[in-house]
Amino acid sequence: xxxxxxxIDEYVGKQVKVLKDITKFEDGEIRFHDVIYSACLLxxxxxxxxxxxxxxxxxxxxxxVVVKKVN
Length: 71
What we know:
- It is a single chain.
- By secondary structure, the chain is mainly beta.
- The chain has one helix spanning 8-11, and strands at residues 15-20, 28-32, 35-41, 54-61, 64-69.
- It has a 5-stranded mixed barrel with strand order 1-2-3-5-4.
- β1 and β2 form a beta hairpin.
- The N and C termini lie far apart (34 Å).
């Protein structure tokens, strides 16, 4: 496994596919640079994002990636 330093700017704005459904009440998963991350919806989002849909990385909250749906 390669060790990577995390620079939030490298992630923010990137579009990735959802691996596990993300809902307002339950975190899902995304993959970025071959690493699987826990992901949650941006607070303003209310619509669930389903596996296979594309999201944009907005920021990090602790060890979770905050995402929004790409229209």
